Amino acid sequence: MLRKTFSTLVRKNSATLQSSLLLSSISKRCRFSSTSSDPILSSFDAILLGVYKDGSLTDTTAEVIPKDLQQTIKEKLRFSDAKGKLGETRLFYGLGGENFPKKIAVVNLGVDKNADEEEFEVLERARKAASIGVRSLREVGAKNIGVDVMIHEHGTAEGATLGLYRFDGLKSAKNQKSPVSIEPIGSLSTKELSWNTGLIYASAQNHARTLAETPANHMTPTVFVESAVSLLQDIPNVEIRVHDKEWVAEKGMGSFLSVAKGSDEPLKFLEIHYNGGEKESKPLALIGKGVTFDSGGISIKPSAKMAEMKADMSGGAVVVSALFGIAKLGFPINVIVSIPLCENMPSGRATKPGDVVKAMNGKSIEVDNTDAEGRLILADALYYTSSTYQPHSLIDVATLTGAMYVALGEIYSGVFTNSNKLWEQLSQAGRTANDPFWRMPLDDSYSRALKKSTVADLVNVGDRGGGACTAAIFLKEFVSGLTEDDMDESDEFEKPLNALDADDESKIRYAHIDMAGSMQTTQDSGYDVKGMTGRPTRSIIEFARIISESKLTEHL
């Protein structure tokens, strides 16, 4: 059962109730049905079929599509001058007679080379084809689509679910689109990654998309907490603890408090426990930045694109959504999620540049720039989580620096880590999910710029160069048990400074993921939907699957 422990009662006023109803409405519109049995094709108003370059159907649909119809489709494709490129789609109407769906979309999978590909390549072909195909059917009014599972059930379900996502719950009724449901046609003999796992991975990312896309007046710290409770309340082995300002002050989280001071919205510290593993086994810890709106504080941002700062809580959205996926899939591990939630606003109460605050671990911080607030709230969350629960691995996810967007753009999320093994597992997960990571240096040399203050232990910003690296090394200062002594200078050409040996069991494996660039996309095709991305939710779920299957927790 879900146990909810509240430091204070969450009071629902009309604004938060409206926002909760909005999230509920959007959530319903983003869920897709599935079935384990072969559906009756006549029950659909449209079907999506996968074909190879030569026009032959996949084995999964060849079993349920009549031979004469298969031949008709092949001829139609030949006369339509199809090139056979991945994602190329053709729409046909009325080919199957009265008892057959009126709309048929045929999407090309390219050359049949499944046996010669690695799984991540098969997954990606399935994702792309399914997402393009279902979107083409939605454009012609399809509401209930039967989807050929094609070459990989998981990838097909992911692509279709992600591709059909849209955020229109705040529009008037006449401008909202009807939801589209999908069900699988056929099945493959694989098992770890199936149609159902694909639905869960993609639905988790869609939930993160919705949280990040929701405007800040509808997504306050209080509403974020309410949405998390609603999302997780029926899932076994999940416990939610919501802490208030008094609890945060009692813990000595002065760094977190300093950011929230300028806003009238009450801060929240959201803590979620998933107990899927053995009681005594160390947990995986996930920490997400939860700034529900970032004006920059007294160091106020330019007005251009400030509206995008509604998504400065994307890290929090990712980790709560990933926890949803991990718990729904029942991975046999323990997970702790911590999300410090607040707004960063200018006011007469706001922290001023030059103020000195004290973090939970006792270090004093000179706030040189109030727009470098994410690292301030994460500092206390990192120390609290690492010192209290002593996880085997700790990963924070944050839209932390504009420097990361400059370095990597929209494609990669940057990873700073002290562990080669952790990097390998994250990299593998990102590759499988096609939500990739790029390793960046976590080097103590960057800390020199943070120790220039004459009045405090640290300053919250460094020099202009290497901004993302400086932010990462600032965060490392607050992970309990990690010090400059962690640096391993051996084999420098094989690994960056501070990388721990894979068998070093005495240290927390730490990774900071800066996804300031990948938080949104300008693309609107396939399973990319223009706007907030919800990345890297699926990669985090896949990482949890990797460590649960490797039984990593037994020797950490």
From TrEMBL:
Domain of life: Eukaryota
Example of a GO biological process term: proteolysis
GO molecular function: manganese ion binding; metalloaminopeptidase activity
CC annotations in GO: cytoplasm
Keyword flag Hydrolase: yes
Domain Cytosol aminopeptidase: 369-376
Record flagged with keyword Hydrolase: yes
Catalytic activity as recorded in UniProt: Release of N-terminal proline from a peptide; Release of an N-terminal amino acid, Xaa-|-Yaa-, in which Xaa is preferably Leu, but may be other amino acids including Pro although not Arg or Lys, and Yaa may be Pro. Amino acid amides and methyl esters are also readily hydrolyzed, but rates on arylamides are exceedingly low
Alphabetical keyword list: Aminopeptidase, Hydrolase, Protease
Entry's family note: Belongs to the peptidase M17 family.
PANTHER family assigned to the protein according to its UniProt record, in alphabetical order: CYTOSOL AMINOPEPTIDASE (PTHR11963:SF23), LEUCINE AMINOPEPTIDASE-RELATED (PTHR11963)
Matches recorded under HAMAP family: Cytosol_peptidase_M17 (MF_00181)
Name assigned to this protein: 944_t:CDS:1
Organism whose genome encodes this protein: Acaulospora morrowiae
